[in-house]
Amino acid sequence: LIETRIVHQNEVTFIDILNDNRLVSGDLDGIVKIHTNPILPDQIENYTNSFTSSVQVNYDLFVGGFSNGCFKTWNITNHFQEIYNHTECYIQTIYNIDRLDDTNFITSSLESQYIKFWNVYTGQCVKQLNLGNGLWSFYAIYLKGNYIATIVSDNTIKIYDISNDSLTKLLNGHVNQAKKLEFVRKWSILLS
pTM higher than 0.85, yes or no? Predict the structure, then answer.
């Protein structure tokens, strides 16, 4: 154990490391903190909904998702100035956000049959992938090329080619619902 810090008063729901090695954390109370000071982190904002997921899309921009289905975009080189507050993302909690490229990111949400693709600069939904009626995505990540993987509510993992919205591979093997995916780019291995 290198260090223990108590910086949140409630359960921490998300931790991420930025490209400049600073740590970002969010909690159930909706408090988001950036750890620039090793003793006392700066508080970015105090929101009314739980902070659930985040991703740094490019060097300057950081996106955070919340339990009310909204996301916010901050400029991390300008003292985390909020540059976009998207309030009509989903009805349910944003479950995860992943980087797609330098201009776009993807989100998945509980009880939504769509995986949505967003432009980080405008907050516009540029594409959505329909998983089918009655299905929803627990977790979606970018793999490489035109491929994403998602954990679907029918206990499967599906890989889609987003250039034509086609299902390219259906992976079975979990008796219960998988909770997270990780793609190891070095060896092209998908972990669940």
Answer: no
